[in-house]
Specification:
The complex is a heterodimer of chains A (about 200) and B (about 260). Chain A is about 10% helix and about 30% strand. With about 200 residues, chain A is mainly beta. In chain A, the strands form two sheets. In chain A, strands 1, 4, 5, 8, 9 and 10 form a six-stranded mixed beta sheet that branches. In chain A, strands 3-2-11-6-7 form a five-stranded mixed beta sheet. Chain A is globular, with a radius of gyration of 18 Å. In chain B, a hairpin with a 4-residue loop joins strand 1 and strand 2 (about 20-25). By secondary structure, chain B is of the alpha/beta class. In chain B, the strands form two sheets. In chain B, strands 4-3-6-1-2-5 form a six-stranded antiparallel beta sheet. A five-stranded parallel beta sheet of chain B has the order 9-8-7-10-11, with helices on both faces. The chains are: A mainly beta (about 200), B alpha/beta (about 260). Chains A and B meet through loops of A and strand 3, strand 4, strand 6, helix 5 and strand 11 of B.
Chain lengths: ~200, ~260
């Protein structure tokens, strides 16, 4: 629909030049950190909290909260992009690299996809490749503070190169599969992979 | 399912609802219908090509002519949808939609989007709808569809607004409740109340939800929509009161007012 102009619209939020190249198509820079969730925020007692890696792995893993904290730490600093169009530029999270977790679990050669499953029942699916090679974390700190429950605390997945619904809140574990299995939003009209730079928001995008 | 393509809609009517809220009636050629609770993406384009996109809930009921229990065989496809938009002073898109647009203007949109925060009469109930401010819009689509389909699924709406004048759809809600088909509407006014106000005069809290809402044993389907803080508090209270978290669906409007 090239050439259409909205009569009288000027636009107020044009990004500064240094931000413009960091914003994927259709996104705008947001200073806050909006909360978007399909249901109530689960409250999880750290004493009962566990993180599992299961499915097609040689040695299934289960970490307690203390055990996870004792793993070698890893930090992310960069940009995140929500499918509802806000991007948060220059933010930071700390936790552990998913590479560290997968090394412990030893994925079997047949493993090609992952379902992240969560306290509260949420799921999201990713190709295993999107979780490997320094591209994904399990995080429990945001900008130096404990991750608030409404943002996914105690711990959430962080996959910043995909739309943020892939960064599952209240993470309970990763299940490795030899096939793709659409998760919650992926079954409800949202794109299976969700690359913001390709603007993969919905089915068929 | 094919790509959700951008469509060029025409503004048929601009209807003020409150001092800060307008309803846009849009003619959308080829519109395929929607489910109550779904939203559309709206895209504005400036003369220099700059674009801004946001999502807005559909407030109108679907036409019912596309299959399902409300099917009107042979009825004309309805190509009109209504968006009800609150003007946010620091917003970029809402001041345009709720200030600049007028009948005859065109608007790019695509949708419908969203498959979770939806309700149709055949999903049953009882229904507990909790709204804050313009969060009432997707819930209104549900209530309008409920009435249009002649549904008697018991429904309760608890609706928080700042003042009496800020209540969106006030008269229509009165009419829907007066129809006597099992809908009750309770208002909470948080900032100011008119003389003789008989409704609640505080923010929604656990006691209010216990008075207005269903007992957990009645297993209501709850839909909560509004500002993040309200949704967080209400959903938390509902779970603490014993409601099944999997039957509490939420839609939150972040600090920018974007759902």
């Amino acid at each position: 629909m090239g050439g259409f102009v909205s009569r009288g619209f000027k636009g107020r939020r044009r990004a500064a030049d240094d931000q413009a190249t960091r914003l994927p198509p259709g996104q705008y820079a947001e200073r806050g950190f909006p909360v978007l969730t399909a249901g109530p925020t689960p409250r999880i007692d750290l004493a009962d909290w566990r993180l599992k890696i299961e499915g097609l792995v040689a040695t299934p893993q289960e970490w307690t909260w203390e055990e996870l904290q004792a793993l070698p730490g890893s930090e992310f600093e960069g940009d995140i992009h929500c499918v509802t169009r806000w991007s948060k530029l220059g933010t930071s999270f700390a936790g552990v690299s998913v590479d560290t977790l997968l090394e412990a679990a030893e994925p079997l050669p047949a493993a090609s996809h992952v379902v992240a499953f969560c306290y509260g029942g949420y799921t999201t699916n990713l190709p295993l490749d999107d979780l490997q090679g320094g591209k994904a974390w399990v995080v429990w700190q945001h900008e130096g503070d404990p991750l608030p429950a409404e943002h996914g605390g105690p711990a959430r997945l962080l996959v910043p190169h995909l739309y943020f619904w892939k960064s599952a809140k209240w993470l309970a574990g990763l299940r490795l599969l030899d096939h793709d299995a659409p998760g919650f939003w992926e079954s409800l009209g949202y794109h299976n992979r969700g690359d913001p730079w390709r603007e993969e928001r919905y089915w068929g995008d | 399912m094919g790509r959700l393509s951008w469509r060029l809609a025409t503004v048929a009517e601009v209807r003020p609802e409150t001092g800060r809220v307008v309803t846009l009636a849009l003619e959308v050629p080829g519109w395929d219908g929607h489910l109550p609770g779904q939203h559309v993406d709206v895209r504005l384009t400036a003369e220099d090509g700059y674009q801004a996109e946001r999502a807005y809930s559909i407030g109108s009921a679907p036409d019912g002519s596309r299959g399902g229990p409300g099917d009107r065989q042979g009825g004309p496809p309805v190509s009109r949808i209504e968006l009800t938009v609150e003007r946010l002073e620091d917003g970029e898109v809402s001041p345009y939609l709720a200030g600049e647009l007028r009948a005859g203007d065109q608007l790019e949109l695509r949708g419908p989007v969203g498959g979770y925060f939806v309700w149709e009469p055949d999903r049953g109930g009882p229904l507990l709808l909790v709204a804050g401010g313009s969060g009432v819009v997707p819930l209104m689509a549900m209530l309008r569809q409920r009435a249009a389909a002649g549904s008697e699924v018991p429904a309760r709406l608890l609706y928080s607004s700042r003042t009496f004048e800020d209540v969106i759809f006030r008269e229509e809600l009165e009419r829907l409740e007066a129809a006597g088909d099992g809908l009750t509407v309770s208002h909470a006014l948080t900032r100011a109340q008119p003389a003789g106000w008989a409704g609640y005069a505080r923010r929604i809290d656990a006691a209010m939800l216990e008075e207005v809402g269903w007992r957990p044993g009645e297993r209501p389907l709850a839909y909560v929509c509004g500002p993040t803080r309200l949704v967080e508090v209400v959903a938390g209270h509902l779970v603490a009161l014993g409601h099944d978290p999997s039957r509490v669906r939420t839609e939150r409007f972040g600090p920018t007012g974007v759902p």
